[in-house]
Specification:
Its EC number is 1.10.3.2. Belongs to the multicopper oxidase family. This is Laccase. Its cofactor is Cu cation. There is one protein chain. This protein is mainly beta. The protein is built from 8 helices and 32 strands. The strands form 7 sheets. A 6-stranded mixed β-sheet has the order 10-9-12-17-14-15, with no helix packed on it. It has a 6-stranded mixed β-sheet with strand order 21-20-25-30-27-28. It has a 5-stranded mixed β-sheet with strand order 11-19-18-13-16, with helices on one face.
């Protein structure tokens, strides 16, 4: 028999070591107006701590993060920690009127949560209206002390934040679109780390520059923070080796181009293995919408080798056509999860709840005595399973769920669309009144704790064929398969990867196609799933899952924080 004293000493030693490896990381966010100069204009924006993009947060897996948010802006505010699991800390997730009421101007709120079971690149952003255009930043999760990356140690880590810029107040841009029912004005530029690059007016010196040493390896932590722009990203004459997406490790994937949707992140190694010189990095849009305007500009930064001559034009990469779906699909469908790597989760085999969910655009009738700018005098709308989501106004969904308040939501979100049709046939579906008008509702899905959900996300062609980046709060999911056309279970289930599928929190559902995801509802609380094209979320492209408590105190949602904002 083992010596009980020695056993106790071992347990205590392990507890001390575990505690010592975790830390409390504390930040203060002062959110207020800031005047910056871009594209020949001085523009007033909302920013955090006087910087755009906002501050980068660095933590280690297992740390507790505390962020004190002081709202000194003129707008209501919440902050979402995009991709963080928020195990038993749903109150800190941040989406407006889903898990909290907004922080009113002149008020403050403290977010506190533990980061566990995740490593890699995530990010944070405002989750009220279009504020996240300028209120955002990277959230870097490194392995615990003494743990290593499952890839070669880089010489340096570099954050690459891809963004979108308007020569206007983005809140006014959104309000105009909501009021008129038409499309929002497109952005004036894309940016790399806040800078548009030298293809834009007055921007010769407003370009991000990355200095590298020949032969060294750099870990690029790439985040797409754009509101509505899906982007191709490429560095001239260089390959990138992808090792993680959405803070989930992948098998190494070598590519010369990355397609990244709003909300997604990519960790990739760049080796400075070319001739000494200067090489442009560039990002350009991916768009499949026919007849719908989009920002078709290109943003550039530059990679400069030590010893490169100061004079000379950098080499420019060849970028795909804006509508190059083949290149976009090749990248997104080629990634596989790092089976048995750090924090790997096996695919749940048994499915408790199956859903077939259509995602796409539609219309809503124009109010009486109003002139609306949507097609045929209507207002644009968006829906999932012909239900256009509207958040509550009286209290947050989480508060209503936690306190059992009636009249805030209903639990009858449908598991399939009300009618079956040829979902991706634009010729048949365009302006067919049977599919166009979705009711504005606050319908949710209730899930038993630890149940497994399999969801088919089916794009529609009711108004154009688009790639929709769908983001799930509170959990990652396995991407079992994706493809084009209408999903057919008798044929497409054979495509399921149940061994080493990629793990994500945001999936770009292919344009005119579908994706199948699977996740376990093991996190009590209220979690929204929505399109991360902000224009589409504004129009109602979202739904909500309510996960019930588990059987033990360790699987039960705790009391709300005492300083939780009131509505």
């Amino acid at each position: 028999m083992r010596n009980p004293v020695l056993l106790l000493v071992g347990v205590l030693t392990l507890m001390v070591a575990t505690t010592a490896s975790a830390a409390v990381v504390e930040h203060t966010f002062n959110v207020q107006n800031l005047t910056v100069t871009r594209l020949c204009n001085r523009q007033l924006i909302v920013a955090v701590n006087g910087s755009f993009p906002g501050p980068r947060i660095r933590v280690r897996e297992g740390d507790t993060l505390i962020v004190h948010v002081y709202n000194k802006s003129p707008y209501n505010l919440t902050v979402h920690w995009h991709g963080v699991y928020q195990k038993l800390s749903c109150w800190a997730d941040g989406p407006n009127m889903i898990t909290q009421c907004p922080i009113l101007p002149g008020n403050k709120y403290t977010y506190k949560f533990k980061i566990s079971g995740q490593e890699g690149t995530l990010w944070w952003h405002a989750h009220v209206s279009w504020l996240r255009a300028t209120v955002h930043g990277a959230l870097i999760i490194r392995p615990k002390s003494g743990h290593k990356y499952p890839f070669p140690k880089p010489h340096r880590e570099v954050t690459i934040i891809l963004g979108e810029w308007w020569n206007a107040d983005v809140m006014d841009v959104e309000e105009e679109a909501v009021t008129s029912g038409g499309l929002p004005n497109i952005s004036d530029a894309f940016t790399i780390n806040g800078w548009p690059g030298d293809l834009y007016p007055c921007s010769q010196n407003h370009m991000y520059k990355l200095k590298v040493e020949p032969g060294k390896t750099y870990l690029l932590r790439i985040v797409n923070t754009a509101l509505n722009g899906q982007l191709f990203y490429k560095i001239a004459n260089h390959n990138l080796t992808v090792f993680a997406i959405d803070a989930a490790y992948t098998k190494p994937y070598v590519t010369d181009i990355i397609m990244i949707a709003p909300g997604q992140t990519v960790d990739a190694l760049l080796v400075a293995d070319q001739d000494i010189g200067s090489y442009y990095m560039a990002a350009s849009p991916y768009s499949t919408s026919v007849g719908i305007p989009y920002d078709n500009n290109t943003t550039r930064g530059v990679v400069v080798y030590d010893g490169a001559p100061p004079i000379g034009k950098p080499l420019m990469p060849t970028l795909p056509a804006f509508s190059d779906t083949a290149t976009a699909y090749k990248f997104s469908s080629s990634l596989k999860g790092l089976k048995d790597g750090p924090h790997w989760a096996q695919v749940p085999k048994n499915v408790d709840y199956k859903m077939f969910v259509t995602v796409g655009l539609g219309f809503t009738p124009c109010e009486a005595n109003r002139t609306c700018l949507g097609p045929k005098g209507t207002k644009l709308s968006a829906s999932m399973n012909n239900q256009s989501f509207v958040p509550p106004k009286r209290m947050s969904l989480l508060q209503a769920f936690y306190s059992n308040v009636d009249g805030i939501y209903t639990t009858d979100f449908p598991v399939k669309p009300p009618i079956e049709f040829d979902y991706t046939n634009a010729t048949i579906n365009n302006y067919n009144p049977a599919f166009l008008f979705a009711p504005k509702v606050t319908k949710v899905t209730k899930l038993k704790f630890n149940s497994t959900v399999e969801m088919v996300l089916q794009n529609t062609a009711i108004i154009g064929v688009e790639n929709h980046p769908m983001h799930l709060h509170g959990s990652n999911f396995h991407v079992l398969a994706q493809g084009f056309g209408n999903y057919n279970p008798s044929k497409h289930r054979e495509m399921f990867n149940l061994v080493d599928p990629q793990i994500r929190n945001t999936i770009g559902v292919p344009a005119g196609g579908w994706a199948v995801i699977r996740f376990t509802a093991d996190n009590p609380g209220v979690w929204i799933m929505h399109c991360h094209l902000d224009a589409h979320l504004t129009y109602g492209l979202g739904t909500v899952f309510m996960v019930e408590n588990g059987p033990t105190p360790e699987t039960t949602l705790p009391l709300p924080p005492v300083d939780l904002p009131n509505c």
